[in-house]
Write a structure and sequence with these properties.
Number of helices: 4
Oligomer: single chain
Strand content: under 5%
Number of strands: 0
Radius of gyration: 24 Å
Shape: elongated
Helix content: 55-70%
Structural class: mainly alpha
Length: 87
């Protein structure tokens, strides 16, 4: 035997019915804080700080890897047939 029940309700009604908390205010606060940080970072217009703030592993240790990748990329563009021997 198979029984199907369709319930037509809003997410707020479902949350209330199941006894779950309404976290929309907390979510809004997090979004506003993120927007504020993003706008402050963009106002500096420093691409390096924007990249390190948004990229995974964007701290000083992570940026070294990206710099090495960029150097390797550009060196291969100036000499397309060459292969990198550095590791």
């Amino acid at each position: 035997m198979k029984v199907t029940i369709d319930i037509d309700c809003t997410p707020e009604e479902a949350r209330s019915f199941m006894g779950l908390p309404d976290i929309s205010a907390a979510q809004q606060a997090v979004v506003e804080a993120w927007q504020k940080q993003a706008m402050e970072a963009m106002s500096s217009m420093d691409p390096q700080s924007l990249f390190t703030a948004w990229a995974p592993g964007g701290g000083p240790a992570g940026s070294e890897g990206w710099e090495q990748f960029q150097k390797s990329f550009w060196s291969s563009m100036t000499n397309p047939g060459a292969t990198s021997t550095k590791k």
